[in-house]
Structure formats: structure tokens, C-alpha cells
Amino acid sequence: MDSLAAGQRPDRSRPRLRREAGTLAALDQPDQLPHQRQPVRRRVAVPPAQAHAVMTAGGLMPIPMGWRDELDRPIACRSDGELVSRRQFIADLNHNIGLLGQRPDEAAILSTANLYWFAVGLFALAACRKRTILAANDLPATLAGLTDHAGLLVGDREHAFSGVQHRLQRSDDARGTAWPEIALTAPICFFTSGSTGGPKRIDKELRHLVTEAEAISDLFAAQRAGFRSVCGTVPHHHAYGLAFRLVWPLISGIPFAEETPEFLEQALAELDIGAVFVTSPAHLHRLDGFAPLPSARRPACVLSAGAPLDGEAAQRAQELFGCAVTEIYGSTETGALASRLHDRSGEPWRPLPGVQLSQDPSGHASATAPHIPGGQAVLADHVRRRDDAGFDLLGRRDRVVKIEAKRVSLDEVEARLRELADVEDAIVIVRGHPARLAACVVPSGAGAGFLANEGAFRFNRRIRAALAIHLEAASLPRHWRFVEQLPRGALGKISQRDVETLFDE
């Protein structure tokens, strides 16, 4: 935590966002429907901003276009209707730049529950020229695993973390509106599941995120006038959520909802007319039982990314929201690369503005774009080019799969299983629709004893609990088989087909 004077007590209250004078004219007051407990914002009546600024010129990020003369317009809104203005954001940014600038650390882990405070932390660290480390999640084991990269954690709450913590603070003086010097070359480091089984480090710079946001803005230029707010269910520490819920709306002048609803019911209850709803197949596959939204609360756009969306789920979503789902294709390494409107079967993917797709003689596809580090990247998917400049996705080329829109390394899950005292060996496969993990496990001597005495149900619960210390819920196997040895061929290679047969019995 930050150093305190002798006898001074730390302020452990959560940072609060206050409603700024003048902003209520821009957004309607929330009201309460008789049958709902949550306040529902009826309309975000923010007029369309000017076209986004070209923000990658030079080494510093200029103030977004349209901000300087309209500082009292909102940048973010809370689920209870409370607002925060651009003026307050700049003040909070400068205040935390001053605090973080006093620290000698060259890097910091950024982890917040609140999207607004994530924005403050991200740009404050860039202004201080510190490397920002983005964890795949906020599990204590994940944060502990990043201490070799940074000993400082920046957040909006206290974590179970062995290093120093800086809690982002609100400025009580919003009079100063000087836009800070934010370095576009500031390094940003993602950690995500890799094919080797351990966390994969992906290095970018802030300019890559800003250039990606400009491409997204160009993609939606024709629809921009109807976009009044941005909200969603996708966590902002994921590359997709960061791009579409934060960086793009910030440079485009669209207010963003700073909270991420825990439940789908809450997310749907808080939708406004004209909203851009950033979600994933993990949520769109759970729309059964929900009635179509009334026209006064239908979003202007629904985005989905992270995993393929099947036709049945896309149709249900279109009936509920009143608009077809726009799917986004990309990766943490490349950012957003392509989109398609999922309104009919077989619709091809089309590259985003500024993205070019090529294919070598072996069939491996590459993407070229200004927002890709190095300018070019080989895709992890097999693709089929179409004559109309579109393309089809034919599946991944590695063992990193998507479960509930999250990247899951099968190698990592297997490695974690083999680390357990109850497990001698294991293989993990993907089964079913929607996709779920299935684990075939060879118990150790101790594990076999527990299995014999307590049964398979208690044994798989015991293993799942041990895995949950290190892995997110999507990475935990749902189906289990316990065998004396894994099925292997003559050369010792495990037979995937034989493993799948074990789960068909």
C-alpha cells in the first residue's frame, strides 16, 4: 500500500464517482419500474460526437477530438445512473499520475473491478512511462505468478498480493483540465493461456490499442449516429473487452458503463435504447426463457467475440434484441481483425478497415494491420478465402481452445492436473456443444485409495477444488473418467479417438 504518515489511517473506502454539474442535461435520470428492483436507465441522450481523432500521430496521445470544448459531457455512467464527466476523468488522471510518478517502479500490474478506474490506471501508467501488466484474471494465484514481472499492483480495491499496492484515488479538484502527456509507446503486457501450457506473454504498446480503436470506429462509421452508450458482459482485462468497452468508446466520444454485470438478467435489465452491447457466446447461448426486449430498450448493436456463435443462438439473440449480432474475429496477439453480421447462414468474415489478409502456399494465413505488433501476424486458424474478399474460418491450428469465450490451454490444464498429489497422468479433450472440457485421469497411489474409499463423485470434486486455486472456472473439466492407464498406440502416442470413446461408454 502507499506509505502513510505516522498515525494516519488508510482510506479503505471504494473510490466514488460523483455526478458532475451539467451532465444530467446530457443523460436522462434513471427510473424504477414497479416489477424491477434494479434502476433502469431509459435513454442516454448524448448527441453524436465528431469523427474520432487521428491519435497515432507523434509520440503523445492528444486529447480526443471534441473533448476540449465539451468537458462536462459524460465519459462513463454507473448502473444507478450516476455520471462522471470528462473533466473529472482528466482530473483523476492527473492526480494519479502525480502519485504514481513518485514511485520508482518500472512496471505495475493493473487490476480493477471498475472499468472507469481501469481507464484511469491504464492511461496514468502510460503517462508515467511504466510498463502495464494485464493479468488474465484477478485470482490470487494469478497475481502471485506475476510478481517476477512487477512488484507494484495498481487497483481500485485491496488484493491478496505480497507486493506494494497503489489504490487509485479520486481528485477533489476538477478545475484543472490540462490533458496529460500520455506516451503512445508506453508498453502494455498481456498474459494469456499459451499452447505450451503456461501463461503466454504478449507485448504491445498503447499505440496498438489506439490504432485498433480507430479501425473499429471506421468499421461503425455509418452507424455511429445511433450509438448512445457502450455496455457489456465481457471483462475489461481481456483484449476484446478492453478494445470495445473502453478504448474505442473513449476516443469516439461514446459514454461507457463502468460496471460489468455479474448476471445476464442484470445486464439485460440495464440495457438502453441505442446501446452497444459487448458480449460473448458464453452469454448469448443462455437466452432461453427471456422475452424480447421492448422497442424502447433495444440496443443499436450487439457484438460477440471469443468463440464461434452458432446459428440457433444468433437467431434467438436477434429475436430478443431486435438486431442481428455482429461477430468480431481476432486474438489477443492481433487485436480485432474481421467482422460479420450473423443474420444468415454462411455469411463470410470481412477484414476491418486497414486489415489485409494473405495466404502462403502451405495454406497458413497472415494478417497485416497497423495495430498488430510488428505489422503482421500468422493466424492460429485455418481459413478459406472467398472471391468477394471475404473468408471462412475452418478451426484452430493449436491446442488453445475457446470455452465460454475464454482461451483455455489444454496443455496447461493437463500440467496442473499432473502437479496434484492425487494424479499420476492425465489428458484433457473438448467435447459437446457448447464445448466443455473432459479429463481422463490416471490416479496416483494416494488418489486411487481415495477413489476406492470415497467414490468417483467425491474424487472429481476434490480434484476440481485443487485446480480452482490456479485455473478459472472455464478451465475446469466438467466430465471425468478414471483409468489405470491412458490409451496409447504402439509408439506411445496417446490415441485421441480412444480417449473420446471412454466418454461415449
From TrEMBL:
Q: Residue ranges of the AMP-binding enzyme C-terminal domain? A: 412-493
Domain AMP-dependent synthetase/ligase: residue ranges: 190-352
| GO MF term set | ligase activity, forming carbon-sulfur bonds
Residue numbers spanned by region Disordered: 1-40
**Comp. bias regions, Basic and acidic residues:** 9-21
* Protein name (Swiss-Prot/TrEMBL): AMP-dependent synthetase/ligase domain-containing protein
